[in-house]
Specification:
- The chain has about 260 residues and is α/β, with parallel strands linked by helices.
- It has one domain (about 1-150, about 210-250): Vaccinia Virus protein VP39 (Rossmann fold, 3-Layer(aba) Sandwich).
- About 35% of the residues lie in helices and about 20% in strands.
- It has helices at about 1-5, 15-25, 45-50, 65-75, 120-130, 155-160, 175-200, 220-230, and strands at about 35, 60-65, 85, 100-110, 130-140, 230-240, 240-250.
- Helix 2 (about 15-25) packs across helix 3 (about 45-50).
């Protein structure tokens, strides 16, 4: 499953969001230390170092899968001196213990796995781990404002998901054939995920309630929890159910 996830094309929103993340991070005064929560195979760090090979910044990649972090370390081997990895689930207590302080905390399409009752503590931990002028960037799928799931069966979700890319630009530049291929890959990935979970359960692996599910909350819900944790924050990008939320701790220093 880790290899399948790592080799899938960026598709959809990711190429655009990675550029946004990289552009924001590159305006912070180097060198900076960046925590990537739910880093997966290190896509963001890989693209960052391609764009800015001379910056002396460091990434700390945190993910619950040791297998996917092995792939990340292999991809980023040439930057080994600037990359560290931690196998951690951000739903577990003390997930941030021993990882140090950071100038930026980022997460791309991962935090909808945080269970709702743990979200306030998660943002408090992020705020505590940031240095006095740090930033937080979070991109993920959010619930619609009526709290309906973006992948549910209510009329709004069904209608928006069926609209072509040219109407609500979710997949700019994709041909119809490429879009069909991505949809087929999504169906295959879902089937493989279900099979992997069934195999794990048959082997005796136990999952906590909600551990394998998505927790869709609204942008407003996240912003409220971030502000209570101490952040100044708001939404800086949005397409359909995908959004980027930016949080500030203090007044980050820019390069110019």
């Amino acid at each position: 499953m880790a290899q399948h996830y790592a080799t899938r094309p960026y598709g959809h929103y990711r190429a655009e969001v990675y550029r946004l993340f990289i552009d924001v991070l590159a305006w912070l005064r180097s060198p900076i230390r960046i925590l990537d929560v739910g880093a997966g195979p290190g896509h963001l760090a890989h693209e960052y170092f391609k764009r800015h090979p001379r910056r002396r910044d460091q990434f700390v990649l945190l993910d619950a899968s040791s297998e996917i972090l092995k792939i990340a370390r292999s991809r980023l081997g040439a930057r080994a001196d600037r990359v560290r990895t931690f196998v951690r689930s951000f739903n577990m207590p003390n997930w941030d213990r021993g990882i140090g302080r950071f100038d930026a905390v980022v997460s791309n399409n991962a935090l909808f796995h945080v269970r709702p009752h743990k979200l306030p503590a998660f943002y408090r931990a992020c705020f505590a781990r940031l240095r006095k002028d740090g930033i937080l960037l979070n991109q993920q799928s959010f619930a619609y404002e009526d709290r309906a799931s973006p992948y549910g069966d209510d009329p709004f979700a069904l209608f928006t998901q069926k609209l072509p890319a040219g109407v609500l630009p979710q997949t700019p530049g994709l041909t119809a054939a490429a879009e069909r291929r991505l949809q087929e890959e999504a169906r295959e990935a879902a089937a493989e995920h279900s099979a992997a979970l069934a195999e794990a359960r048959a082997a005796g692996v136990r999952f906590a309630d909600g551990q394998t599910g998505y927790q869709f909350l609204t942008v407003g819900h996240h912003i409220e929890r971030m502000r209570k944790a101490g952040f100044q924050c708001g939404c800086i990008w949005r397409k359909r159910e995908f959004a980027v939320v930016l949080g500030l701790k203090g007044s980050p220093r820019l390069t110019r």
